[in-house]
Amino acid sequence: MAEGNRRRRRTSWDDLFGSFDEEFEDMRRRMDELLEQYTSGKLDPGMGQPMIYGFSMRMGPDGKPRIQEFGNAAPETMEEGSIREPLTDIIEEKGQIRVIVELPGVEHQDIQLNAEDGMLDIEVNREDRKFSKKVDLPAAVDPDSAKASYKNGVLEVTLKKVAPKKRGKPVAIEPQ
Fold first, then answer.
1. Which of 5, 28, 55, 108 is the most buried (most CB within 10 A)?
2. CB 6: neighbour CB atoms within 10 A?
3. Which bin fits 24, alpha (ψ -120 to 50), beta or left (φ > 0)?
4. What is the maximum alpha-carbon separation in the chain?
5. How far apart are CA 34 and CA 51, in angstroms?
């Protein structure tokens, strides 16, 4: 009986975290490869932009962990890019969506935002710092409702949700 309980708990754990162990191991392997390339002289972080790679893990609304990678080092190719993908957090509330973005070392006038029905486009294009991210929003929003503030390297954008449009129209059935 105790063995059966252990198996049920393990299955529940596996369902909750799925391939988390495999994804974490893959990230560790990529970081080891970056370190190996750096120590062997194949990468020179002193040239151009610094190499940044990281990840954030949070629990999603469905109770499963969500892993978000960020930075300017493409782990698949191990090449340095000049545009960084900023760390972003999306918070869905009852009537609105808040998007919080880390953009260190820039001024508010350096940030370009473009809001659409289901997407927020964030871009910073300075000579010394470049950030870019297209954020898919979890619900349709009113782009005209967008309000943004920037303080201490953190951008916060709030957008009001819109009710889903009614699709189709009723069709009357004629009696025979």
1. 55
2. 10
3. alpha
4. 83
5. 10
Q: Which phi-psi region, left, alpha or beta, contains residue 74 (left: φ > 0; alpha: ψ -120 to 50)?
A: beta
Angle among Cα 82, 41, 131 to the nearest 5 degrees reads: 10
- pLDDT by residue for the chain (176 residues), tens only, comes to 454 444 444 556 566 666 677 777 888 888 888 778 777 766 555 445 556 667 677 676 677 777 677 666 655 543 444 678 888 999 999 899 999 999 988 999 999 999 998 899 999 988 888 889 999 999 999 999 999 999 999 999 999 999 877 778 888 899 98
CA distance 137 to 161: 10
Residue range(s) occupied by CATH 2.60.40.790 in the chain: 86-163
What gap in Å lies between CA 12 and CA 74, rounded to an integer? 34
In the sheet with 154-160, reading across from the earlier edge strand, the strands are: 88-92, 96-102, 154-160, 147-151
Identify the CATH number of the domain defined by range 86-163. Answer: 2.60.40.790
SS3 97: strand
The rounded Cα 145 to chain-centroid distance in angstroms is: 22
